[in-house]
Amino acid sequence: MDVNDAVLTRLTVREYKPDAVPDDVVDRLLEAGRLSPSSQNLQPWHFIVIRDAATIKRLGEMATQGPCLGDAPLAIAVVTDDTPRAPLDAGRAIQHMELVAWEEGMGTCFIGIRDADQNAAIKEVLSIPAHLVLLTILPFGYRKSANMGKFGRRNRRALSEVAHSERFGNTYTHSG
Question: pLDDT digit string (tens) for 113-131?
Answer without folding.
Answer: 888 999 999 999 999 999 9
